[in-house]
Amino acid sequence: MTPAPAAATHCPYCALQCAMTLTPSAAVPVRPLAAPSVTAPSVTALSVTALSVTALSVTAPSVVSSGEPRVTVSGRDFPTNRGGLCKKGWTSTVLLDSPDRIAEPMRRGADGTFSPVSWVDALDDIAERLRRGRAEHGADSVGVFGGGGLTNEKAYQLGKFARIALGTSRIDYNGRFCMSSAAAAGNRAFGVDRGLPFPLAALGSAETILVLGSNVAETMPPFIAHLEKARANGGLVVVDPRRTATVRLTENGGGTHLQPTPGSDLVLLLGLTHIVIAEKLVDERFLRERTVGFDALARSVGAWWPQRVQSVTGVPVHQLREVARRLASGRGSYILTGRGVEQHVDGTDTATAAINLALVLGLPGTPHSGYGTLTGQGNGQGGREHGQKADQLPGYRKIVDPAARAHVAAVWGVDPDDLPGAGLPAVELLNSFGQPGGVRSLLVHGSNVVVSAPNVNRVRAGLAALDLLVVCDFFFSETASLADYVLPVTQWAEEEGTMTSLEGRVIRRRKALDAPSGVRNELWIMRELARRLESPGVFSESPAEVFDELARASEGGLADYSGIDYALLDSGAPVYWPYPAGSNGTPRLFQAAFAHPDGLARIVPVTPRPAPEPLNTPGSLTLITGRLLEHYQSGAQTRRVPELNDAKPHARAELHPTTAASLGVADGDLVELGNSRGSVRAIALVTATIRPDTVFLPFHFAGSECANLLTQDATDPISGMPEFKTTAVTVRAVREEVTA
Amino acid sequence: MSVTPRIVLVGYGPVGARFVEDLLPAVRLGAVALTVVGAEDEEAYNRVLVAEFAVGRTDRSAMEVTDTAAAVDAGVRFVRGAHVTGIDRDARTVTLDDESVLGYDRLVLATGARANVPTLDGVDAVARDLRALLRLDHSEQGRDQRLPDGVTVLRDLADARTVRAAVEGRRRIVVLGAGVLGLEIALAAAEEGAEVCVVHHGGHPMARNLDRGGGTMLARSVVRAGVALVAHSRAEAVTYRTDDEGERHFDALVCADGKIIAGDLLVLSCGVSARAELATLAGLPTSAGVLVDDGLRSWDDPHVFAIGDCAHVAERPADYLAGARVAGGPSGLIGPGWRQAEWLAASLSAEFAASAPPPPLAAPRPALVMLKAEAVDVVSVGDVELEPWDAEPSTVDADGDRVPGRQVSQWVDPEHGRYLKMVTRGGVLEGMVCVGLPRTAAELTLLFERGSELPADRSVLLRNDGPDYAPATDSDTFAPDATVCWCNGVTVAHIHESVDAGDTTVACVGKSTRAGTGCGGCKGRIGELIERFMETEAAELPV
């Protein structure tokens, strides 16, 4: 077998989608994967403990027996990453031959252990049980949970599969945990949501960049090259309760760190807006010609003068003034938000407040300034455009819009009346498991909800109550290990497709090598299930064909891909949506008008609300969560890369020295963080880089280290985003070493 | 009740406006009929910004706090530019200066406060006790006195415009009183180029808020900011000059010790008093304001309420005698006033529109005082007279629980203009003065508002303003665990190892450690490190 030529593709992880080349190593034969002998817990899913789950994820050598990976990675020049990769990208190919890889479909037996099963038997049984579930409990008893890492083709096809093959409205995805608040705010203000409505490289010409709640230096390191000019001009402003790696970029004259107490971001933004208005730094002409709603905003922020903001946020007045003036200095200013400010029950309003600040300064829709949100997951942008969302059809269309239904139904070859209506956002969907009228059968694609969803104990109980759980994955992730069926699927280097990066650029994922023989692409799985379910419509397993259909389905929608095909993408042209047929795409949105019918941006006044649960009560700390350089999302992949896992094998709880001292905790001690929902054990990392009232946990770990055992499932009323970032916890030192 | 309950609000400042806003849902439902009587023709504005408006730093449009049009749309009736001159509690009506009469079922007084005019020879004194009020003409009730030309208080927009003209004309401004507002206007006017002198009778400015140490430090900062301070001076008289057209203007302030301080404008900044005379005239109990219980209801009339700067919330003493002085008084701050407005609106909505009643209004905490000035940073709260060596024994409260005595920690650095006093009880901040330490002050304001315990090591707080808060990393860029390449998590030690292993170029080091293979921003540093480690190696070679 001759190895394929080098594949020009992109990194499998985050939304920066660093360009990389995968070169197959000619000498190395494809190693047949042995079926891992995995024993899943025989008890109920709810009682799966940390240790037993961990036992499934054996860490092992990352390379085939010859010691050489089958493909080698090299950085590829591209405007976003300029040839660079981070540690995760460099080690990404290790997972292709991981000994943990699932090589054939696995079925859980009556004794709770998994054993291999043929594709035919697996799909026949799954289809039969889905059909039966639908007949007995209605179509909405079948749920689908997708992911922001799926290609555009898979995400599109999954939405279509749910609506016409399963006939269910109950589809949502893990992007609800990431981008939904910023998306809702962007749609409300601008009429469209493209994370960065400008090419990423445009940041490179800005002298002031305000980053709120994002730690790009760890989450997408090659990004920081675009902050160079702002740093050189002292204009990088980072808002974070921790002095993160990104904050360190402000040192030595690079800029300013604002360190507000968790949960006060909205007030901080109202305060900055107040100063901009009070000090007459507003762009009056812009407000007059391109926006509506300023007067109400001016009144609403009148109540947030700087001294009052200081007493709520802990950010000194002079810093607030400096930042407001700096942003208004007119030498290219960008405001960027991340999950830190968005993952709250008022996340939509907080993102709106950031947009309002940008609008009063006249930044969006101008050539050298703007507002953007930093999409996290690999296809977090494309994944939120083409129908995985409960309320959405392809092209960022609303599922309740009759015209949208008619258009999409015509492309799918079904009657618009046969399309279900809006479903439930992720947390509600998860909470409906096993409830009367709730979901009883679930298909999971590209998500590891028992690590990544809030209030994990509740999610575990919900999954245990299901009649059928089918998980598509590469590994026995913590969620897969609770499944009735685990269907092994292709990894990024084994498939063709497209992704839409954080800047709204559609890029190609290309195949570098064949998948192991027992592994299938999800497009194939959907085709096979659709056939067995006697679904109307066409379910192609060819990514190019699915993409062409996606392009037609998106035509006329907000995220219009109708002018894009693989030939265009393969030409190397920079392709930014909206890209209607006959156009050249849209690298920079809003230059002439915003996407509302009248072309004007909406300024929507927002006001702070009390936290869903009281914070800063005596003896409590506020838990915030985030990422580490070495790991990605639930860690299902990166914890299986030895180099990454060896560097960061465990969750460490960051505590301020003064807090640690009062708790009697020393660096390296085992501590327990607890609240009414659960408890987490972690090693203390004592560091002055965190606020004394705050404790930080990375969210990549499972079992008793899973940060989401503590987080709450209260959600934003507009976006459905859970409150991940302010959780009241108590912390105590664990004196005697207790092992479960 | 067969007819819609009528609520009359007297006063449409920021507190009144908040009350209206929060009552709108009930108004829209038709559950209550709301009439607002406002003395100023202006829209409600944010008084917090009056000093900034007075020096031209902000515009009227930035001071709007409410949407009157929305309230009108909702069905609120406004009577603007009108004064309530009397309350008939038996008939439950109020009379306006145009003799019109409004009936009410609930009367809410949000008349605010007026600036005090001290007793000065040359300025008419006005009494507002019941006897004096009864002598006033009906149409004069509720009005403020007119001050001579060149003399002003600083309370409303008209006053602010007077000051603004003087600032813009770079005139000499004399401020009488060194409270927060006096200092704010003095500092702001000086920054904008006016010549400013502050006259006060204590030993240091902000005497009501600061201890001697903090006040002394503040005085230095104020002088450094270009404002003349005349301490220990009791003002006694105002003299006038007459211009060519025969108009009399302020000329100078005369002090008890004979000092004469000349200027173009005299700004009287001597505190405020509640506008409580409507209640006084109506026979309702008043002291430092309209006396109301913790439900904001008048002690003597269940149909009358007061909120904001005119409200004196206090428990009625068992032995209360009409006219007796009652401890406490309005806070004079907007925050507590807003909370009262929100609470009363919620409470009346619950009564008439069947919405959920609000939880009891929390007792106001001592209010933080933050001087709004660019060059001077002062925050204070609570009682700060206690000194570090004043031992305060613990006591036992009514429940038999031990209440620890207060403790004081202090930092004094006159050379650098920094002063901090923290008065704590059981580790929780009860009072503080913080001068010249802006980050520390920000953290302490937050901790005070929450009632959180301070770090046991108080010096941790001071370090917020220390050089290690945002460390210049130059000192430790060669520390073995210092990160060089963020993209790949490569430290100085890793690069040292790589150089020791024979890598002598950035590319080689990149190949073996991945340093510099992400964003590439650290390649320069890697080069420096290679050079440094190769030199070290060379030096270590035997000669």
From TrEMBL, chain A:
Checking InterPro entries in the record gives: Asp_de-COase-like_dom_sf, MoPterin_dinucl-bd_dom, Mopterin_OxRdtase, Prok_molybdopt-oxidoreductase
Organism superkingdom = Bacteria
Molybdopterin dinucleotide-binding domain residues are 621-728
For this UniProt record, the keywords arranged alphabetically read as follows: Iron, Iron-sulfur, Metal-binding, Oxidoreductase
Q: Which residues form the Molybdopterin oxidoreductase domain?
A: 101-531
Molecular function in Gene Ontology: oxidoreductase activity
Q: Name one Pfam family in it.
A: Molybdopterin
The entry's protein name is: Assimilatory nitrate reductase catalytic subunit
From TrEMBL, chain B:
Q: Which residues form the FAD/NAD(P)-binding domain?
A: 6-314
Keywords in alphabetical order, please: Heme, Iron, Iron-sulfur, Metal-binding, Oxidoreductase
Q: What is the superkingdom listed in this entry's lineage?
A: Bacteria
Entry's EC annotation: 1.7.99.-
Q: Which cofactors does the annotated protein need, by name? A: [4Fe-4S] cluster; siroheme
Q: Which organism is it from?
A: Conyzicola nivalis
What does UniProt list as this organism's lineage?
Bacteria, Bacillati, Actinomycetota, Actinomycetes, Micrococcales
Q: Does the keyword Metal-binding apply?
A: yes
- What's this protein's name? Assimilatory nitrate reductase electron transfer subunit
Q: In which pathway does it act?
A: Nitrogen metabolism; nitrate reduction (assimilation)
Q: Which residues form a coiled coil?
A: none
Molecular function, one GO term:
oxidoreductase activity
